[in-house]
Amino acid sequence: MLTKRQNLIETIKGGNPDRFVNQYEFMELVLESRIGKSVRPGQKIVNDWGVTFSWPEGQLGGFPVHDKEHIVLKDITEWRKYVKAPPVPTSDEAWAPAIEHANKIDRNEVFVAAFVAPGLFEMTHHLMSMEEALMAFYEEPESMHELIDYLAEYELAYAKEMINRIHPDCIFHHDDWGSQISSFLSPEMFEEFFVPAYKKIYGFYKANGVELIVHHSDTYGVNLVPSMIEVGIDIWQGVMTTNNTPELIKEYGSQITFMGEIDSGKVDFPEWTPEIVAEHVEKACKSCGKLYFIPNLTQGLNFSSFPGVYEETSAAIDRMSKEMF
């Protein structure tokens, strides 16, 4: 029987896996690598960039507050006035929890996965709101290029410290690039603004011991797949059924692996049942096949919003492995 790590490699290389890669099992997430404030249910916080986040009780997640009082970037043409990157953590104390966690992981069994969030696109709209960010790509492209370069340089500085501290062999990187039915930017605009920055960032990771780039975007992204391949993404996590994943696998499978196809919104809700989960898992596994595909809830971490859904999904994937392998 292959290890979880070996089985992942066989799956993404078009080899001979002996079972489905079961959700996130191939990597252990070092969530401590995300140093800084993050909002939790029922909280309202200001993060290190000055962005105010609110997560109301009963909601499934938090989001930036963008009224006039709280918005950070008030004028994209004066972004240097408003946007101040926080210091990259360099103390032993700051990195101690991440180092301790990484050192306990069996690298022969799984990948040590550093967690990086938010991504470059998300940072632009966290700072200035989604509406203002999307308009700025058209109205002030020069300033947006400058801001994205600034954000990318910060991530590179952070990545250098992180690599030196925990030596990850996998990066799990968040950046949502669309809605369920469309990308936020056209492929041409995405190519102009984000491909150069991500090629630099992901290239740096790959040049410094990182074997696997897993990028989370639980969105529509068919039109961005060529760019994903160009920037060096190995696994697109969060691929929704609106992307026609079986067709993506046929066209691009030898270049990138697709992780998802079990839409969280369809199975992860208060009235979920094992039967509903089993139905969606079976459809995903049978339609997408054994190679270049990892069945997974589209949500961007290894848990579910409602208790039991993630575990039941894993059990259903195990049953499909026994049936199909």
TrEMBL record:
It comes from the Bacteria. One of its GO terms (molecular function) is uroporphyrinogen decarboxylase activity. Gene3D superfamilies: 3.20.20.210. InterPro entries: Methanogen_methyltrans (IPR052024), UROD/MetE-like_sf (IPR038071), Uroporphyrinogen_deCOase (IPR000257). Residues 49-300 form the Uroporphyrinogen decarboxylase (URO-D) domain. GO terms for biological process: porphyrin-containing compound biosynthetic process. This is Uroporphyrinogen decarboxylase.
